[in-house]
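Open question from group meeting: does this chain pack into something compact, or does most of it stay loose? Before anyone orders reagents, we agreed to write out a predicted structure and look at it together. Recording both the input and the output here so the notebook holds the full record.
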Amino acid sequence: MDPISPLEQALHAARALVLADLVAGQVAEADVVSLVEDAVVRRRWWVEQWPDGAPFVAGLVAQDVQDALLERYGRWPLCPVCGSGDPHALDVEPELGPDPHWVCSAAGVKVAPVGSLGAATGGGPS
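Structure tokens returned:
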């Protein structure tokens, strides 16, 4: 059995982290999971071209899924921090960097690491 390459490890980890956040938000329907798979396929090519970008893949997949959901369904994930005003989505920061977090730009706070949204929103541990 061949060992799993660092590229594959990064892609599998990114998939798992984003799926955990989708499950926490109770939006992990089959068509949404397909959006995750599409994002992973696109990012596979990207990280093959730039292997040093492997630590950035989780944040990029999260952003890709967020963008795809916005086009099809609306904002995700909604901010659990701001209790008043118009509902708004969290952002992924850094936009291109390791250790991505969901942040509320309006309040200026980190809400949770990508993959741990459930712990921050009461959706259960992720």
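Observations to bring back to the group:
The longest strand covers residues 109-113.
Residues 6-121 form one domain.
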